[in-house]
Amino acid sequence: MYILEKYKQVRRVGMELNNRMLEQYVMREQLETAGRLLGVLSGNYLHISEEEEPAFFDFLLHEPYMDGPTAVEQYRRDHPQMEWIEKQLTEAFLAAYTSLFMVAGFRREESTLILEDLLNGGLIPLLDIHYSRTAEPGTLLFTRVVPYRGFNMSSGFSLHFYLEADRLIQKYQKQYKKVPSDTDSIRRFVAFFALSRRYGTPAIHRSVQ
User: Fold this and answer.
1) CB atoms < 10 A from the CB of 133, how many?
2) Among the four residues 61, 85, 149, 206, which has the most C-beta atoms within 10 Å?
3) 175: domain range?
4) Looking at the 3D structure of the chain, how many domains does it have?
5) Statement: residue 20 has pLDDT above 80
6) Model-level pTM?
């Protein structure tokens, strides 16, 4: 029970922290650069669906798309006296990573999924109260795992796929080579984001002005 209460607390703080980082470090230039990399910028508009927004915001906060520090790194630099839970959370953000995972099992009494990392190998537990109740075995998802103290959680987004794993990985390897970046994490994110768009998500037009 203690872990679940801690998880809920960290989630609440994390949502507030994400909003502050977006307000402080994401301006028009960041929106345009990220939108261009992800292939969602056309003129002054971002063509993204509501389902894609969490992934887009995650990219804005965690990836070094501006050829400099990420929003998380800037926040740590500019707020050296942050509260202890924010300090622990930003440390966990810096250690977070993205990959393609398959739901391999559950520990439902602990609100935990067991994920198989299909790109790096190995199994990891992921604490997620809602998804641990609704996910189906074999589901493929691309997400960012945040290794907080005592448990792993997602950063708040996931892209789901319904191809067979081998076929999806083959498509990913081809898409990865097309991404105009030298940074592995950016190429991985952009490739899976592009693949996720091939399954008919309707676009919503949002001005970046």
Assistant:
1) 11
2) 61
3) 97-198
4) 2
5) yes
6) 0.93
In single-letter form, the type of residue at position 172 comes to: Y
Question: What are 154-180's pLDDT values in tens digits?
Answer: 999 999 998 899 999 999 999 999 999
**Edge-to-edge strand list for the sheet holding 204-207:** 41-42, 45-48, 204-207
Q: Are 71 and 21 in contact (CB under 8 A)?
A: yes
β-bridge mates for residue 204, sequence order: 48
Segment 129-142 shows an average pLDDT of 92
CATH of the domain at 122: 2.40.50.140
Going through 9-96 in order, the beta strands assigned E by DSSP cover 41-42, 45-48
Strands 204-207 and 151-161, sheet pairing: unpaired
| C-alpha span between 56 and 3 (Å, rounded) | 29
End-to-end Cα distance, the chain: 46
Helix (H) or strand (E) holding 102: strand 97-107
